[in-house]
User: Fold this.
Amino acid sequence: MQYVFRSGETIEILSYNHIFGVKILRSNLCNVTKSQSFISIFDTAWNWKVNRTDCFSVARTRGFHCHCVSKGHNNTNIEYLRMGTDGNRLPEKGFFTLRNYVQTCNPVVDKSPNDKKEYRVVTLENKIRVLLISDLHSYSQATTSSDVDSDEKQKEEEPCEVSSAEDDVDSGEDYDMASESGEDEELLDSEESDFDEGSNDEKSGSEEETEEEGSESDEAEGSLHKPKKPIAKKMSAAALAVGVGSFADPPDIPGLAHFLEHMVFMGSEKYPDESSFDALIKSRGGSDNASTDCETTVFQFEILHDSFEEALDHFAQFFIKPLMKRNATDREVQAVNSEFQGNKNSDESRSEQLLGTWTKAGHPLGKFMWGNEESLKIMPAAQGIDVYSRLREFHSRWYSAQYMTLCLQSQESLDTLESWVTKIFSAIPNNGLPPPFYSNLQDRIDSEKIRKIYKIVPVKQVHQLEIVWSLPCQLQNYRVKPLHYLSWIIGHEGKGSILSYLKQKLWGLSLYCGNDESGFEHNTTGAFFTIQVTLTEEGHRNAQEIIVLIFEYLEMLRRESLKLWIYREIESIEDMKFRFREQVDPIDYVERLAENMQIYPPEHFITGDSLYFEYNEQIIRDCMDSLRADKMNVLLFSKLYQDSCQQKEKWFGTPYSVNG
Assistant:
């Protein structure tokens, strides 16, 4: 993690190695509490001559590269500093106070070896953490219609180059496929034959890979392609994530966080017209969106490059001085209510709300997070609550800079992007208050509501079986990814698997296993783990036997020792998929990274939710041991239960019954 220290700040050194490794225990201004944070510090008073090789080799061993606003000797990116209690040298242990400005080393963001973009992590003075992405390489591959007109003569005189495969790959990972041999594709094929990658659905990451065809043979023949039809420039995009969500809703106003998400975009003091931002975005071919989850709220937009700086200023003002006009509240309550009504027939949303009823009284997972007209207008009015005043209080408390992460991608240099961000976003206020904290609420399920069979009437015509467990939070174990590993081995579709047997018996059509990593299914209070089987009519009649089969399979896995070779195979497949992902639009890429920045350390902003880093048998075993019959609930979905399901969930009206 990057820490920017200021003059007058007191820091305690835990250990010290000449001028390279300073292990920070705590700081009086930055609230540094991680004892494993390394920072390279330099002091002019030592008259030390910078050695480029030594400096950078040591910086790399700490997992950082050096980046500073000014350059020292030999053009190394090191800024000389004066610090220490006596202005001459640092203590080997103990406290010292900084005398002058200090620039820490920026952490290196791990990325695909084929990713041509440049990344930089900075922290603004108000404590907003920012990830800058310079996409100059991709920009050079694209043109707009205006570019075509201005360069028409040049295109007629010069032969057109063979198009690069980089135009067709992930916005997060721009690839030079021509540089890759066929060995990578052969390796992936061999891995998929050893272990069935298609065994799971999206929760276990089983998306198929795509291949670029014909580019190498065309180059070998040396043929010239007919010029492609001009394509639009890649959009510039930005996303800002606030580290607060529906968990922070007050008990008497369910859905307030979602309501605030809508109200924030109702104009700002600098740009009071409510429609000015949307008008700018749409006039320049862009789009914008926002979403509220349990512990995060994310705002994002995309726009053509030439209007990006202007759009950033509009965007930032929503968080600096939003108007949140009182006369817009009724309209936005109706907008929130409309969203709820549009999702009222979603079986997924209905199931989540029902799962929330399993929690202990007062646990945030049991809240009604959508919000609607009843929760935001009718109920508060009956209790004499001024929703608008409470909305203002909520905004002042939680929409503070230190909880925010910002990600930008554009066809500008990193220095330009940093100057824009510093100028535009530094005015977002920081209230200095501690962040929301829920990780002490791991014991979240009411023991009286566990080991039950829930029969539920779905909206869709489907027979479905779900077995659901509540596990401790695994976000801190992202390097191991125990839930991903379990989803692979339980969701395996090959010979001897659960699904293979169910298909043979004509009982099951598909099997879904794992955790979708959404804020509801996985947050700091815990994680749900689900085995979901879509049943045939015959399978529905034999649901009890299928439940027994699943637990026999789990018991077999517990008896068997964990297989390192399976973990390594999954690790290799996921690494290959990461290197050769399909294209993702910049707006989706920055949204994902802004959310990742709330969870992972800087070096893993890109890779933290995708790659396997280390095998830890004990962590995986602990999760496996939690998948027991005395810790689960069974959900059976079928229209056949319409007459027997007499209970109704409060907000969605889902009919259900409980047995056991």
